[in-house]
Amino acid sequence: MGVEENEMGILCVGAAVFDYSGKAVGAVGIAWPVVRGGLERMYALQEPLKHACAQISRAMGYRG
């Protein structure tokens, strides 16, 4: 999660994608301007994003 860490007025959330060996090989992130949703939106997006990354990881053979 990022709260205006690199750019003022921008929030973001991200999660890792793993391959068959358990190695992190990528990530998916979502960023948006704070005027389009604050911390509530960031917390609401965490679980759906983690779920999506878990699905991608499983498709890449990850079984962890």
Quick description:
The model has no long low-confidence stretch (mean pLDDT 91). 33% of the residues lie in helices and 33% in strands. Strand 1 and strand 2 form a beta hairpin.
Give keywords.
single chain, 64 residues, 33% helix
Distance between the termini: 22 Å
Q: Give Rg in angstroms.
A: 13 Å
Count of helical regions: 1
Output the strand order for the largest sheet.
1-2-3
What is the overall pLDDT average? Answer: 91
Q: Report strand %.
A: 25-35%
The gross shape turns out to be: elongated
What is the count of β-strands? Answer: 3
Question: What's the helical proportion of residues?
Answer: 25-40%
Main sheet properties: 3 strands, antiparallel
* Contiguous uncertain segments of 5+ residues: none
Order of helices and strands: EEEH
- Kindly name the structural category: alpha+beta
